[in-house]
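Appendix B, record 7
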Amino acid sequence: MQLQGAVIIIGSLFWEDETNCIDLKESKELAKSRKIWRELKLNMDSAKLVSLPIKYGRKSTSRFCTYTMAFTNSAEKKGTAYIVPYREKINVEENFNQLYCQAIELARTEGISKAGENTLVKKWGSIGLKLNPKFIDENQKVANNLLNYWKQYYSKIDSELYRIDENEKSSITKDGVLNIDFEESLEDIDYFLATPVSPNVKKYPDGLEIANAMNSTREEYYNYFVENYNNKITTEDDRDIIDNLPENIKTRLQSQ
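Structure tokens (predicted):
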């Protein structure tokens, strides 16, 4: 049985390369690996813009303490990001090792699995799996076997880290299953991989707070938000963010 997978992409994984990343050695190395991974593994021409529950929900020390995106089940209105299919299908006739290999490649591209590691889980972020409900309905035995295989890699995950409080559903379960929904019909995709991250805030920041974090950086770092917006990766707070940015940054934003 051949399965078609896709990656749910929010933030810099979609657009970052050596020309728009932070000018530091480690950032450039990661950005270069992201571009190569996208070109070799994904069909970027078939990327589909979809509605997703995302917010700026993690203060990132690697991006000068500005806010980066996180999946969240607390968004009043969904944002927009991408689902990008893999170039090649995986074969699950004998085992699910090809799925694991795809997940490890994504983990390395996201900085979750460093050199010499083979892990899908970190405290700050993990690789999540979501099966298409249509695939589950039509292939229940295969789906159950796949999920049982998948959860063996998640004995060390603390899913409580993937929400801001007890009133929010975690964005990933204790079995490594991505716990978000999207409404678009994607019947040609059997499974999805994504990288939920743990929000390290007590409450999700509003547009003013997100803008002020960028405005106060000594490095004048706005590129993460600008590239997201110009690539149509948006949140419900974008208008308020833009209203509180300097005029020279607003001119870099493309009309949407």
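Remarks on this record: Helices lie at 25-41, 97-110, 133-138, 140-151, 207-215, 223-230, 238-243, 247-250. The CA atoms of residues 96 and 149 lie 7 Å apart.
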